[in-house]
Amino acid sequence: MNPPPDLQTWSGPSPPGPGVETVDKPQEFERLWRGFMTARVALGLVLVLLKGTIFVLGASADPALMLICAAYFATALAVRLLANPRPLGRTFDSHWIITIGVDILAFAALQVSQSSINYAPLFALPVLMASVLGSLLLAMGVAAGVTLLLFFYA
After folding, report:
1. CA distance between the termini of the chain
2. Nearest CA among 37, 151, 48 for reference residue 143
3. Cα–Cα distances in Å, from 119 out to 30, 46, 88?
4. For the chain, is the Cβ count within 10 Å smaller at the N or the C terminus?
5. pLDDT interval class at 113 (50, 70, 90)
6. pTM of whole model > 0.85?
7. What phi-psi label fits residue 114: left (phi over 0), alpha (psi between -120 and 50 degrees) or beta?
8. What is the pLDDT, as a whole number, of residue 44?
């Protein structure tokens, strides 16, 4: 019985057995990208439902929070449906802004308003996305920026 093709042994990766197809890097990246974009949409939907429920129950009278969550959900859904999977690269370009920048901006706005919910754990998503989909420089920059945001607004 042959081991799976991605199994690492002490001598290096094992060669694929007969009939086993290897997955190329663009397919893996596209799968990861779609997974992260789907997670953003799901998070946006959860935020809209949470803030909507809080607003309807009368625990919060600030409709701006609901608007922030709805805008985040709409943006995440548009990126998921309309954008093509593409690496984030080394620079802060327009593709970076519509993925990670929107996340940081929305979560920072929610964190500053901070009614009864602490939104700081949400900042893990853009940091994780930058580290998996982007370069090391981008990941370190996003992590440093999020750290500074949390330092000043927490």
Report:
1. 54
2. 151
3. 28, 13, 25
4. N
5. confident
6. no
7. left
8. 96
* 15-25 pLDDT per residue, tens: 555 554 444 67
Asked if residue 125 lies in contact with residue 38, where contact means CB atoms within 8 angstroms, the answer is no
The answer to whether 125 touches 39, Cβ cutoff 8 Å, is yes
Separation of alpha carbons 150 and 2, rounded Å? 49
Tell me if 104 sits within 8 A of 146, measured CB to CB.
yes
* Alpha-carbon span 135 to 142, nearest angstrom: 11
What span, in angstroms and rounded, lies between the C-alpha atoms of 16 and 12?
Answer: 12
CA 132/CA 138 separation, integer angstroms: 10
Q: Residue type at 7?
A: L
The DSSP letter of residue 69 is H
What's the full length of the chain, in residues?
154
Pull the structure tokens for residue 83: 């954008």
Instruction: State the Cα–Cα distance between residues 21 and 117, nearest whole angstrom.
Output: 47
Whole-number Å distance between alpha carbons of 74 and 109: 16
